[in-house]
């Protein structure tokens, strides 16, 4: 068993002002995505400048934050938030839904593209390889918060999390998700998008790969206590929300290669 590193969730405390690691992970994810997008900007559209890119990153970030929070409220714990609406604003305590954030990103992308002469999938193909940076950073934030831990296990790398009332050795599922949704997904999308692909193919690869990774990790991750398992003693809300992504990803890739030849890819 590995010892859980005791990391204070508060990174910086200046009197009553507290800056949490969880919030900093979002800044790291957004900043890293912006830097990578800057490298790919000329290949995506030589007429775009850094100001237009900054606008895109801003609106996508708003989609992530607002969609992620509202998605968690709606998908995972609506009753509790209706009883105490002020909890919705307490994002530093965790409680963000990737699937809600994904919907928020799609809406922001559609809105921004309609005002900048870009199709929805042109922008989504450009954005998709950037997303794993934020996903990976977010999972590190979950780990520091000692939340979203896995099931009890006797594997050598199991950990006892301070937030676990049972104090059992558990799978560090946050690190599994960091490795899959952050590192592996980034590698897949980065190398896949380096070659010319038809429009929608990169978006489809993102949806398919993330959906598969999330579906797998849910088998060792403890579901939210207020929901538990939805069916058959193993099906979780995360798996239910990931299934449409897997099917949609397969459909987008198939449709992309049928409807048009490969286009130039952003390097």
UniProtKB/TrEMBL annotation:
Cellular localization per UniProt: Cell membrane
InterPro entries documented for this protein: Lgt
Main subcellular localisation: membrane
Entry's transmembrane regions: 19-36, 56-76, 96-113, 120-140, 175-192, 199-217, 229-257
Membrane topology: Multi-pass membrane protein
EC number, as in UniProt: 2.5.1.145
One biological process term in Gene Ontology: lipoprotein biosynthetic process
Pathway as given in its UniProt record: Protein modification; lipoprotein biosynthesis (diacylglyceryl transfer)
Chain positions recorded as a 1,2-diacyl-sn-glycero-3-phospho-(1'-sn-glycerol) binding sites: 139
Annotated GO MF terms: phosphatidylglycerol-prolipoprotein diacylglyceryl transferase activity
NCBIfam families: lgt
Protein name per its UniProtKB record: Phosphatidylglycerol--prolipoprotein diacylglyceryl transferase
Organism field: Pseudomonas taeanensis MS-3
